[in-house]
């Protein structure tokens, strides 16, 4: 049995679906990518796939396996900037999962819908892929919006050799910045820190001016820590020379958190 493959149509389908898969993966893990960079990565992936198909004795199945196992990780690296190897593995698993989902939907419709049985045209494939991508993207948006409400983060603070693990809450109203380098400041429950504050060298202590409702002028004690890690359950982000203001007001009873994070330490804009 022989098949006639139209290279231009194969390239178009692979380019469009590759763009959709990269977009969904980026949305899932909140990875920032310029549209041109994403499109260029998808175009490169489609070109590599078509070039592999043109090699003598190579079939469609082998081409798909090559793209998934070899070209896929390189295209992800080209499309996104990763901070950890763990995120590379997660996105690789994610993009292949979305690929199987889209492929399964296309095969399901081609096998069971009247008039499409085994005879899907290029336009129909692209239409199904677009509709499926819109549905998945809408679901991801709604899920993330719901999870943002009352979301807590795992926060690890390095007190010069001893790490303290607490729960943090991101407050968009926290606009504190230390006056020297204008670095963002989070607020730490002093009671939760306990004696660990004594480990901070004297030169790493600050006084930060602030104002709030009922108090026009005030000063907050603050410390500079070697690093702070914020874990949202999907990605861990590390910030060096993190400044934390020390609050004598107990925060734990307000919702199970001991740190009020500055918005710059998380991504609230999603």
Number of helical regions: 6
Return the domain count.
Answer: 2
> How much helix is in the residues?
40-55%
- Total number of beta strands: 7
Rounded to an integer in angstroms, the radius of gyration calculated over CA atoms is 25 Å
Strand content: 15-25%
Structural class from helices and strands? alpha+beta
Could you characterize the architecture of this molecule?
Helix content is 44%, strand content 22%. With 270 residues, it is an alpha+beta fold. It folds into 2 domains: 7-148; 152-265, Cathepsin D, subunit A, domain 1 (Beta Barrel), CATH 2.40.70. The longest helix has 28 residues, at 85-112. The mean pLDDT is 82.
């Amino acid at each position: 049995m022989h098949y006639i493959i139209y290279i231009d149509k194969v390239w178009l389908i692979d380019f469009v679906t590759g763009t959709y898969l990269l977009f969904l993966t980026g949305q899932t893990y909140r990875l920032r990518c310029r549209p041109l960079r994403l499109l260029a990565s998808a175009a490169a992936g489609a070109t590599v796939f078509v070039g592999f198909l043109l090699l003598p004795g190579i079939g469609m199945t082998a081409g798909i396996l090559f793209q998934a196992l070899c070209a896929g990780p390189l295209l992800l690296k080209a499309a996104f900037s990763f901070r950890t190897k763990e995120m590379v593995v997660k996105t690789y698993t994610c993009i292949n999962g979305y690929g199987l989902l889209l492929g399964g939907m296309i095969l399901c419709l081609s096998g069971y819908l009247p008039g499409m049985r085994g005879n899907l045209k290029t336009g129909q494939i692209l239409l199904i892929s677009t509709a499926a991508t819109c549905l998945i993207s809408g679901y991801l948006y709604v899920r993330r919006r719901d999870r943002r409400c009352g979301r807590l983060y795992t926060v690890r603070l390095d007190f010069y050799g001893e790490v303290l693990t607490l729960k943090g809450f991101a407050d968009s109203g926290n606009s504190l910045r230390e006056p020297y380098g204008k670095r963002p400041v989070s607020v730490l429950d002093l009671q939760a820190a306990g004696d660990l504050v004594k480990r901070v060298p004297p030169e790493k202590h600050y006084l930060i001016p602030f104002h709030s409702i009922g108090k026009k002028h005030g000063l907050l004690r603050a410390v500079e820590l070697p690093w702070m890690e914020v874990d949202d359950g999907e990605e861990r982000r590390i910030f060096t020379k993190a400044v934390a203001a020390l609050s004598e007001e107990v925060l734990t009873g307000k919702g199970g958190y001991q740190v009020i994070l500055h918005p710059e330490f998380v991504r609230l804009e999603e």
